[in-house]
Amino acid sequence: QVTRISYEPPSSSTRIPAADILLTPEIATCIQALETATQNSEFKQSVLSHLSEAYGAGESIAAAFARWLTRLLKPYGLIIIDGSHPELKKLGSRVFRTEIQEDSPSTKRALESSQDLEQSGYHAQVSVHDGILNLFYAEQERQSIHVQDGHYHIKGTQAAYTRQELLDLLDNSPQRFSPNVLLRPLYQDALLPTVAYVGGHGEISYFAQMKGIYDSFGLHMPVLYPRKTVTILEKKIDIVLTNYHLAVEDFWRTDDKLINEAVQKNIPAAIDESIGLTAAHLAGDFQAIKNEVIAFDASLEKTVDMSLGKMNQQLEFLKMKVLKVAKQREAIITQQLSKAIHNLYPNNHLQERVFNITPLLIKYGYGLMDQMYHAIDIDSHDHQIIKL
């Protein structure tokens, strides 16, 4: 079964940047819940221990995630950068300065692109509005910046600045500013010029509105490369697929339809047809026997009828036995396919949209990372099945 384990930050506000949210001791309860929900293995205590080290009380969510990801991907030379670091904000502040100084060129170009997309029959992925910068300002919570009557108003506060005052604030406290979804790619590309950007399909669709924005900020838009999507196929689940002649793709539809089709395939229609046909023949054949027996001795008529009744009763008994076995098999089929559905298409989504990798690490150990690293074919954009 799919089990959800989640950590709720002490503040329910969604405006606090992840880098500023510190984990409380309650994070240990989540790790304990994970321990309870997973089976024992030789790797379990090591994985849970490392998880506890990364996600410790007092650590920020961003730092905890970076520490855990570094452990998982350490052999492959991945470098993780915290884009909220004050020094990086200082280095990338020229993007923010252009956004303020030129009255949001990102909004102007995005609106033009949105209009072109809609005229071509598509819809814009990011909603943009005149009079709102694609920047947030944060004291404790992130707030949008609205332009009205020549002043820049911080939403949710009484603060209002002239353009020069806001630029001075940017110079003195660049860490207070952060990009929204439109400016974030430009901010990171200003820090580290990017050859190719690997992103999810939804994320990449944002870039349909981005080309003109890059041009207006004097930056080159990187090559877009869709991230790889995979389904992990474990051996026990693979056996179920083999037994019912199914493929992983068959599970990407309605649960009931999949199970019903599998049940029908495992109950041959010929059995019911054969039993009915035999019963019909038996009645005809027995009439000839009955005629001969009665001609020999009329007192045997009831005996003949009783014999025919017993034979029909045995056929009906056989039919009921077949039905009983069919129902038992249906329960087994339902159980096995339900397990496969929970595994391959949990909550009607791809695995990668629902599952965390940690339970698999507990089951197979950190060697799983190396196995996946070598199995993934990044030259193909097709969904890939990786068998364990």
What does this structure look like?
This protein is 53% helix and 10% strand. With 388 residues, the protein is α/β, with parallel strands linked by helices. The protein has a five-stranded antiparallel sheet. The protein has a two-stranded parallel ribbon with strand order 6-7. It has a two-stranded parallel ribbon with strand order 8-9. β1 and β2 (142-148) form a beta hairpin. α2 packs antiparallel against α16 and α13 (269-296) packs antiparallel against α14. The longest helix has 44 residues, at 301-344. The protein is elongated and about 120 Å long. The relative contact order is 0.10.
Helix-strand blueprint:
Elements: H1 27-37, H2 44-54, H3 61-73, H4 86-91, H5 93-101, H6 105-119, E1 132-138, E2 142-148, E3 151-154, E4 160-161, H7 163-172, E5 177-179, H8 184-191, E6 196-199, H9 201-205, H10 211-216, E7 223-226, E8 230-233, H11 235-243, H12 255-265, H13 269-296, H14 301-344, H15 351-354, H16 358-364, H17 367-375, E9 384-387
Parallel strand pairs: 6-7, 8-9
Antiparallel strand pairs: 1-2, 1-5, 2-3, 3-4
Short description:
This protein has 388 residues and is of the alpha/beta class. 53% of the residues lie in helices and 10% in strands. The strands form three sheets. It has a five-stranded antiparallel sheet with strand order 4-3-2-1-5. A two-stranded parallel ribbon has the order 6-7.
Helicity range: 40-55%
Task: Give the ordered list of helices and strands.
Answer: HHHHHHEEEEHEHEHHEEHHHHHHHE
Cα-to-Cα separation, first versus last residue: 20 Å
What's the main sheet like?
Answer: 5 strands, antiparallel
Total count of helical runs of at least 4 residues = 17
Task: Return the average pLDDT rounded to an integer.
Answer: 87
Rg (C-alpha, Å): 33 Å
Give the strand content.
5-15%
Number of strand elements: 9
Poorly predicted spans? none
Biggest sheet strand order reads: 4-3-2-1-5
Helix vs. strand class: alpha/beta
The global form is: elongated
